[in-house]
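In the design runs reported in the main text, the only information available to the sequence generator was the tokenized backbone. The following block is the verbatim input for one such run; it is reproduced so that readers can re-run the procedure and compare outputs position by position.
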């Protein structure tokens, strides 16, 4: 293997591990400090949305330091996705998966059944398409369940207002809500921003930001 190949692999490993650390840090808002009062009580998770990001969010939760944590229920619109997610998670975390068939749910009302399995101090991971997020969030808050939600949170103005209304209720109920804005927890990015604000690179006049569908050109800063 030549140096370029070794470099590419090492970069991939670095990015993989860095992503895991920052995503797990986002979950700390919910899992740590402990959401349970009893020191030895297991925090039960319900996964709503069993795709790749949802499965990864469970793995992130297992790497967070607010445990002990177990996956207790899983829900998705499609039953095969539930099975695929559980199969993948059991390969690395078999001892933390406690999701028997009676706590595996599929269909449009699956999220309700999964959240209903939880109690005070437990956490639901909301990782479906953003179109469903406000409805799922609202239900979890009404049930008094702590939430970790992936971005994006809504798809239009009315849905955003529905989310914000539920968020206000979560504060009144003293629930913990963490969101997948992992960059906010990245020490490297925080340091970069600090140095920019301190003038370490001079005056910033142009930003060029890439996203999945191509670059976004930002106007000069004032």
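Verbatim output:
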């Amino acid at each position: 293997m030549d140096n370029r190949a070794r470099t590419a692999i090492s970069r991939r490993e670095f990015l993989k591990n860095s992503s895991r650390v920052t995503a797990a840090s986002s979950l700390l808002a919910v899992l740590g400090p402990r959401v349970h009062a009893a020191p030895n009580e297991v925090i039960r998770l319900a996964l709503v949305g069993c795709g790749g990001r949802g499965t990864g969010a469970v793995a992130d939760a297992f790497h967070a330091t607010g445990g002990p944590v177990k996956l207790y229920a899983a829900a998705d619109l499609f039953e095969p996705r539930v099975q695929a997610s559980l199969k993948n998670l059991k390969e690395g975390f078999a001892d933390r998966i406690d999701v028997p068939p009676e706590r595996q749910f599929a269909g449009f009302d699956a999220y309700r059944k999964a959240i209903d399995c939880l109690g005070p101090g437990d956490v639901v991971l909301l990782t479906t398409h953003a179109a469903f997020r406000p409805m799922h969030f609202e239900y979890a808050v009404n049930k008094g369940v702590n939430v970790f939600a992936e971005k994006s949170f809504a798809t239009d103005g009315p849905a955003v207002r529905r989310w914000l209304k539920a968020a206000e209720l979560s504060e009144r109920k003293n629930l913990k809500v963490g969101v997948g804005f992992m960059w906010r927890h990245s020490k490297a990015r925080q340091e970069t921003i600090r140095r920019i604000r301190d003038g370490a690179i001079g005056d910033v006049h142009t930003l060029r930001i890439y996203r999945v569908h191509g670059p976004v050109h930002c106007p000069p800063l004032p």
